[in-house]
Amino acid sequence: MLETGLIVFHLLLAIGMIGLILLQHGKGADAGAAFGSGASATVFGARGSSNFLSRTTGILAALFFATSVALATFAMQAGRESGQIESVMEQPKAAAPETDMPVVSDEPAASSDMPAAGEQPAAPSDVPTAPAQ
To answer: For the chain, which residues make up each domain, given as ranges?
Structure first.
């Protein structure tokens, strides 16, 4: 029950942080205030909303971090109780699965059928050649 409540609180913090971050002005938005864009008539006063929004965002971020650590702790305890962590730690590393794929090497093939660099390939013997005119 406590874990479910913590998850719900964690999601509400995430949604709140997203909303507050989207409400904040960018760095370029302050250029208009220098030319008298009416910053004194805002809801948050003449200083603007930057202090209130940034402080609230910081508080929500700290709470979000704390709930993340708490949820990770709950997940670790649940894994220990079910024995999943120990079973994963004790498993031997699996060998590579065998496949029907051919093995590819980086070495060039040593075939006599391949012409050397700059040579013309030999015509296959079973293909008839065109008669000379």
So the answer is: 2-25+47-89
Give the alpha-carbon dihedral of 5, 6, 7, 12, to 10 degrees: 90
Q: What is the pLDDT of residues 92-123, one digit of tens each?
A: 666 666 777 776 766 666 655 666 666 666 66
Query: Given the structure tokens 């874990």, which residue do they identify?
Result: 3
pLDDT score of 45 more than 70? no
pLDDT at 82: 76
Q: In terms of C-beta density within 10 A (0-12 exposed, 13-18 middle, 19 or more buried), how is residue 88 classed?
A: exposed
- DSSP assigned state of 21: H
For residues 59 and 19, the answer to whether their CB atoms sit within 8 Å is no
Q: How many helices (H) and strands (E) does the chain have?
A: 4, 0
Predicted TM-score of the model (pTM): 0.50
List, in sequence order, the alpha helices (H) in 30-94: 30-33, 50-82, 84-90
Distances (CA, A) of 18 to 28, 29, 54, 120: 20, 19, 12, 67
